[in-house]
Design goal:
Blueprint: E1 5-16, E2 19-30, E3 34-39, H1 45-52, E4 60-65, E5 73-76, H2 79-82, H3 90-95, H4 99-102, H5 110-122, H6 138-150, E6 156-160, H7 168-185, E7 188-193, E8 205-210, E9 213-218, H8 219-222, H9 225-232, E10 238-241, E11 244-247
Parallel strand pairs: 3-7, 3-8, 5-6, 6-7
Antiparallel strand pairs: 1-2, 1-4, 8-9, 10-11
This protein binds adenosine-5'-diphosphate.
Adenosine-5'-diphosphate binds near residues 39, 42, 43, 45 and 46.
């Protein structure tokens, strides 16, 4: 495996029970890159994430990690999943990000609390530390969930539709934050979304899923009228507005 490769899918087939969802997945995720996984609902994005995180085993092929090591992932779930279940404060929720390291039974130390506040500060949410998570706005919740993922000191941040249900301004702020964290720390970003336009100017490479077919490549190659026509069967154009890529 090349030294800049963090994760490699080698001829991977994924499925559930009798049903095959995706076959012949061959791609790498490079250390420090912004990698997008894009596709409509039901196209298999979560299935790829599950394989990446080791929750499901490939039917065929293998998912390999650099140096055969166990990678630490900082997982940012869809916001809705945690919404109402936790009567916790933002700081307590961030501290839960340590449990992988600590074991569930150990109480967080003073150092853990300091780290939690540092990570809340990194995401611009330190003043929310004592507020109830359930009372926060969508964007605030997302920041807290990102701070929680940062507690793992991860090789890769895995974000599952982190801006779902947000307005454009909120989406933009979260993307900006993720890019800032990546450039500060060099963490690899794996970002899942069903919106084709969302990462047009952020991702370096994209994996595009559509009805069992997979295209992988640099963003400018994937967001190309020909590919979009072939994959989606629609007459899309890639326009440039103020130096940014927009699909119309
Ligand atoms: P996405 O994340 O892109 O919405 P998923 O990976 O969740 O797509 O789903 C891909 C396909 O796999 C869908 O047809 C879905 O019904 C099926 N699927 C997902 N999870 C399971 C499961 N646990 N058992 C059986 N089928 C599943």
């Amino acid at each position: 495996m090349p030294t800049n490769t963090l994760i490699q899918f080698k001829n991977v087939t994924l499925g559930y029970g009798q049903r095959t969802i995706l076959t012949g997945l061959n791609f790498s995720i490079l250390d420090g890159e912004f990698f997008a996984i894009i596709g409509a609902n039901g196209s298999g994005k979560t299935t790829i994430l599950r394989a990446l995180l080791g929750i499901i085993k490939p039917r065929q092929g293998a998912v390999e990690f650099r140096d055969g090591q166990r990678l630490r992932f900082g997982y940012v779930p869809q916001r809705g999943i945690l919404d109402e279940i936790f009567p916790l404060t933002a700081r307590e929720l961030v501290l839960m990000g340590c449990y992988g390291r600590l074991g569930v039974l150990r109480r967080p130390s003073k150092a853990d609390r300091t780290l939690a506040d540092k990570n809340l500060d990194r995401v611009g949410a330190v003043r929310l530390a004592g507020k109830r998570f359930a009372d926060l706005s969508g964007g605030q919740k997302q920041r807290v969930l990102i701070a929680r993922a940062l507690m793992a000191d991860a090789h890769a941040m895995v974000l599952d539709e982190p801006t779902d249900g947000m307005d454009l301004e909120g989406q933009h702020a979260i993307l900006e934050l993720i890019e800032k964290l990546r450039s500060e720390s060099g963490v690899t970003v794996i970002y899942v979304t069903h919106r084709l336009n969302e990462l047009a100017n952020s991702a370096q490479r994209m994996l595009l899923l559509h009805e069992g077919r997979v295209r992988i490549g640099p963003t400018e190659e994937i967001l190309h009228a020909e590919v979009l026509r072939e994959v989606y069967g629609v007459d899309a154009r890639v326009a440039h507005v103020n130096g940014k890529r927009v699909i119309v």
